[in-house]
Amino acid sequence: MTRRLDFSELKAKCYLSIEAGWVSVLSFWTGHEILSLVSPSYESIGGFWCMVCAVCILHPFIRNSIDAARLRLNASLLGFSISGFCCFCFGYGYVQMLIAIALTVFATRFFKFYAGTRMAATQAGIVMVIGIVFPHFTPFLNLATRLLETIAGLLIGLVALGLSYQIRVRKFQGVKTDEQPPVSNEAYN
């Protein structure tokens, strides 16, 4: 069964596609600039991480996007806290990365923060990977720049969502029609 595409739906799809592009470019540039202030030769890492944080919260409905931003921030803070502890106590290395990620996953399970497991573990992992690849980054500098990039990416994503809501491209909440359902966390419970 085929469905006719009306003009307003086509306009929304075009806008959301362009939005993903400009959010990606703006967030990459912002993260790039954040890291270039501290370490000019590695600024692409900052741009990449900021872009990931911004694009990951762009959902079809505002409510889903706000929930995704809240989840990303909470999981990031947990991952930063645990990986920061590991960096300060044990330094950087593969064993330290294993410990940081394992402790992060354990913490999400212990506190029943199942939805944040992958995000928190990813944050812990990226902090440790950056430390392994660039050992001259102090743990404080590593954590501070990742946190700034995460917050900047989330803010850029939220501004984009606000704009699309104001011009009535996105609804606050609604029924998803052509989107895939969210990945279930049942396997992680």
What does this structure look like?
The protein is globular. With 189 residues, the protein is an all-alpha fold. 72% of the residues lie in helices and 0% in strands. The chain has one domain.
Keywords:
single chain, 189 residues, mainly alpha, 6 helices, 0% strand
Distance between the termini: 37 Å
**Roughly what is the average pLDDT, rounded to an integer?**
86
Helix amount:
over 70%
SSE ordering: HHHHHH
Poorly predicted runs are: 175-189
- The count of DSSP E runs of length 2 or more, i.e. the number of strands, is 0
- Please give the radius of gyration in angstroms: 18 Å
User: Approximately what portion of the residues adopt beta-strand conformation?
Assistant: under 5%
Number of domains: 1
Structural class: mainly alpha
Oligomer: single chain
| Count of alpha/pi helices | 6
Shape: globular
In short:
The protein is mainly alpha-helical and 189 residues long.
Task: Summarize the SSE layout with pairings.
Layout (H helix, E strand, L loop, with lengths): L6 H32 L4 H13 L6 H29 L3 H17 L6 H17 L5 H28 L23
